[in-house]
Q: What sequence folds into this?
């Protein structure tokens, strides 16, 4: 079949297998070009490893450090002639490239929040790898079925305490709009903390410890975001921010446990990039479009793979100790948060409207990155050619 993008709001409901494979290959090539990561991880588990930051972490571990990787994710295979989800195609391409380089790569597709998938993953590790020395927790999900209560809980992106109004962009129509959001209820706050907070990360560590698959000295990290004041009402001080501070408390608890055996746990704060998760947050796509313009002009721009390679090569696997901030987090958002960058972003934010959107922002770059997430707009891919949507994970 011929596969074209079909955009519905902030998602694209189709994905292109060859385009996704090319996108993964671009990331692999970037990592290989940087040279090997010395003393890198050996056996890596990436929870949420099919798209965005998780996929790039897996690519950096495998192709930078030669690590064996297990990826856990929740993706849709092709059914009845419909294309699979992008993360499915990404993972198939990742596995193929890893094996071609003689690297172990296995994936588990299912609900990471469930006890069943945790058990299945522990079994696979025990059988094939023995133990894991790096666990990356990179889930982003709108809901979670709690494994103990069976209740399905939703996560929401809302302010806490007060209503919030600010500019946003309809990326598809290229119109600057204003969004107004009512504050979350207590139940919505609790729900978001349950879905995007640290409880599930701790449950993964419990399951791995009980299963005897945590290597002595193991490292684990989960990803977070802080951003500038203009996004705080919807991010840092909103429901998602509550979940992220819960994640930081979980990091402290896990760190105390792992330390006994020389291990460590911490939160890594990444920069804002275009992913399926970030495109769903009101206000953030407009902020990212402005940020990209400023960072590209200053030659500071990074995407997921540049960030994750930097995390592995200059922080986690480096002779120096990790550079923690005052709250014990690793900061990869240092360039985004630089004073000169944020000053320019704030100035452009004040001025931006529908008429000057193209002049003051990198909306085109945003749209290109968005389409790339689904395998569209990649060089060398014939988008008019017939492709088989039914790609198998090994
Ligand atoms: P993403 O949407 O690209 O990836 C989410 C991953 O989670 C995918 O692999 C998906 O398959 C998996 N997933 C979702 N629900 C699942 C489930 N029930 N079971 C198994 N797998 C499931 O998201 P992303 O933007 O890369 O976000 C990853 C982390 O990085 C999040 O914690 C996010 O807050 C953080 N982060 C993102 C940004 C950004 O700008 N995108 C910035 C800083 C931090």
A:
């Amino acid at each position: 079949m011929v596969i074209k993008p079909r955009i519905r709001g902030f998602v694209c409901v189709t994905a292109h297998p060859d385009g996704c494979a090319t996108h993964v290959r671009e990331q692999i090539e970037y990592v290989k070009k940087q040279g090997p990561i010395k003393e890198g991880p050996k056996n890596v588990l990436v929870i949420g490893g099919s798209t965005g930051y998780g996929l790039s972490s897996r690519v950096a571990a495998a192709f930078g450090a030669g690590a064996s990787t297990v990826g856990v994710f929740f993706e849709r295979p092709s059914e009845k002639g419909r294309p699979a989800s992008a993360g499915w195609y990404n993972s198939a391409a990742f596995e193929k490239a890893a094996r071609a380089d003689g690297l172990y790569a296995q994936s588990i597709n299912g609900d990471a929040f469930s006890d069943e998938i945790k058990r299945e993953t522990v079994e696979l590790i025990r059988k094939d790898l023995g133990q894991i020395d790096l666990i990356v927790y990179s889930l982003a999900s709108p809901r979670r079925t709690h494994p103990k209560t069976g209740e399905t809980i939703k996560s929401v992106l809302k302010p806490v305490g007060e209503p919030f109004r600010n500019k946003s962009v309809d990326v598809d129509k290229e119109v600057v709009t204003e969004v107004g959001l009512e504050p979350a209820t207590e139940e919505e706050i609790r729900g978001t903390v349950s879905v995007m907070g640290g409880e599930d990360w701790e449950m993964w560590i419990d399951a791995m410890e009980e299963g005897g698959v945590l290597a002595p000295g193991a490292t684990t990290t989960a990803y977070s975001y802080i951003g500038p004041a203009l996004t705080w009402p919807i991010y840092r001080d909103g429901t998602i921010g509550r979940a992220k501070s819960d994640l930081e408390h979980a990091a402290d608890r896990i760190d105390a446990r792992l330390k006994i055996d020389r291990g460590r746990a911490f939160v890594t704060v990444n920069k804002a990039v275009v992913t399926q998760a970030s495109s769903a947050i009101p206000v953030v796509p407009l902020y990212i479009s402005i940020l990209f313009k400023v960072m590209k002009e200053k030659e500071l721009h990074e995407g997921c793979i540049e960030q994750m390679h930097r995390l592995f090569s200059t922080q986690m696997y480096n002779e120096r100790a990790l550079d923690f901030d005052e709250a014990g987090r690793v900061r990869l958002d240092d360039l985004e948060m630089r004073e000169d960058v944020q000053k320019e972003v704030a100035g452009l934010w004040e001025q931006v409207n529908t008429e000057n959107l193209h002049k003051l922002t990198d909306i085109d770059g945003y749209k290109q990155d968005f389409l790339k997430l689904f395998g569209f707009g990649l060089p060398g891919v014939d988008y008019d050619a017939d492709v088989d949507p039914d790609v198998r994970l090994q």
